[in-house]
Design goal:
Elements lengths: L2 H4 L14 H5 L3 H11 L2 E4 L7 E4 L2 H9 L4 E2 L25 H9 L5 H20 L7 E2 H18 L7 H10 L13 H22 L9 H7 L10 H14 L2 H16 L1 H9 L4 H12 L4 E6 L3 E3 L2 E3 L4 E5 H4 L35 H18 E6 L4 E2 L8 E3 L1 E6 L4
Parallel strand pairs: 2-8
Antiparallel strand pairs: 1-2, 3-5, 4-12, 5-8, 6-7, 9-12, 10-11
The chain binds protoporphyrin IX containing FE.
Protoporphyrin IX containing FE (HEM) binds next to helix 11, helix 12 and helix 16.
Length: 416
């Protein structure tokens, strides 16, 4: 790692690129955000690969901005980079009211409490099968065999997607978030991404027509869109259809996958916490929230100013980009006590920024928590240890915070 990343204490903030994806890959992002929270909580950066933008790094400021959707709009997009204007795919995460609510309402039933109850048994069965199949006494990649495997199965269920093709869903999820401007050039080019988006549209248009009026009583995301009068013809608006598909594919996939891997890392880094949960499985629910906070699977969301405004003494202009750094909010000690520590028994353990706030607060948050809880319940029934064998490989990405590899060995309980 170069000295420029190792120690930034003497570098003026105006010389640092807050959005630099390498800082997430080499895990040196924290000192920068600590300085931003202390010295420049509403920070303007005049130039970056994504153009000029404001950085909001304190918890309470992010909450306040998310409440004010008239001034801080989610349109045209919610990540730091802009899609080319002719390539925008409207999706409800990137819509303001009233259209946002209309489209969210159509698919929300997929995560209704009754559905979650039914999913739980299925998730438990699949988690057990995946964990039973893990090799013992040899190093394997937890990301591949557990996290990616299980979250892809879940996503296939949400879409009632052809089972044998389910690997496509996680490949697509990786591809559509892999913008070269967010990955220090490591991602796909614009044309490569367009090719993937066209493939998604083609496959899902076929599925739409196969399902239309087939009379099947299912709560999968495609049939839910077909059933709601406001979205019943969404297939005729291919940009909006593929936009929402991308939202649901990415939303339900990378985030949970990276939390499932992050947990293994944090428990290995904090062996006393690992021992506590091994001794007392009733701590698993709280631990899951702490993992999601500590991981912060999406490092930011972005808003765009609809008009000039003064915020915390700074003059912001219509059209400015405002980046809400959830990873920083989750380490804000003015709201979260001892915020840099991984502590599985916090008092207000769900009081974190990872799911966002306000009208766009994550639609799948209860599903994600349940899936992670069940995986850990099943894992701790079977294993006395899940040992990290080498440092994980982190994504070079300023939006998705996660891992491409997590080498581990498991030891089975004698009665597991
Ligand atoms: C640990 C796992 C997850 C994390 C950390 C996460 C994080 C987020 C965040 C930060 C937002 C935007 C919030 C905002 O702008 O205020 C969001 C929105 C969303 N998430 Fe998740 N998510 C997770 C799992 C899921 C799952 C499993 C689904 C699948 C159903 C899902 C579906 C969505 C959708 C549809 C939205 C858009 C909501 C809206 O705009 O109204 N997410 N998520």
């Amino acid at each position: 790692m170069s000295a420029a990343y190792a120690d930034i204490s003497k570098t003026p903030l105006c010389e640092l690129d807050v959005s630099d994806p390498l800082r997430f890959e080499n895990d040196t992002w924290q000192p920068l955000f600590e300085r931003l929270r202390a010295e420049s909580p509403v920070h303007y950066q005049a130039d970056s690969p994504a153009g000029p933008f404001w950085s909001i790094s304190r918890f309470e400021d992010i909450v306040e901005i998310e409440k004010n959707t008239e001034v801080f709009s989610s349109e045209p997009t919610i990540a730091i980079v802009d899609p080319p204007p002719d390539r925008r795919s409207p999706m409800f995460i990137a819509m303001d009211q009233p259209e946002h609510d209309v489209q969210r309402r159509a698919v929300q039933p997929v995560v209704a409490p009754k559905n979650l109850q039914e999913f739980e048994a299925l998730i438990r069965k699949r988690s057990g099968e995946a964990l039973d199949a893990l090799p013992e006494g040899e190093t394997f990649d937890w990301v591949e065999l557990v996290s990616r495997n299980l979250t892809t199965q879940m996503l296939a269920t949400l879409f009632d997607f052809p089972w044998e093709l389910r690997h496509k869903l996680s490949e697509w999820s990786d591809a559509v978030t892999s913008d070269e401007r967010m990955t220090a050039g490591q991602g796909l080019t614009r044309d490569e991404r367009i090719e993937v988006i066209m493939e998604i549209l083609e496959v899902f248009t076929r599925l739409w027509h196969q399902r239309k009026d087939d009379g099947v009583e299912s709560f999968d995301l495609i049939r839910l869109l077909q059933r709601d009068p406001h979205t019943a013809n969404m297939v005729d608006d291919p940009k909006n259809y593929v936009g929402n598909l991308m939202l649901l594919i990415v939303g339900g996939n990378d985030t949970t996958r990276n939390s499932m891997s992050g947990g293994v890392l944090f428990l290995n880094e904090n062996p006393e916490q690992f021992q506590r949960v091994k001794d007392d499985h009733s701590l698993i629910s709280a631990m899951v929230s702490e993992i999601i906070r500590y991981q912060t699977p999406l490092s930011h969301m972005r808003r765009t100013l609809t008009r000039d405004v003064e915020f915390r003494g700074q003059q912001m202009k219509a059209g400015d980009k405002v980046v809400l750094w959830y990873c920083s909010a989750n380490r804000d000690a003015s709201v979260i006590e001892n915020a840099d520590a991984f502590q599985i028994d916090r008092q207000s353990v769900r009081n974190h920024a990872s799911f966002g706030f306000g009208i766009h607060r994550c639609m799948g948050n209860r599903l994600a928590e349940m899936q992670l809880r069940v995986v850990w319940e099943e894992a701790l029934k079977r294993f006395s240890d899940i040992k990290l064998m080498a440092p994980p490989t982190r994504l070079c990405h300023n939006f998705v915070r996660g891992y491409s590899a997590m080498p581990v060995q498991v030891t089975r309980l004698s009665n597991g």
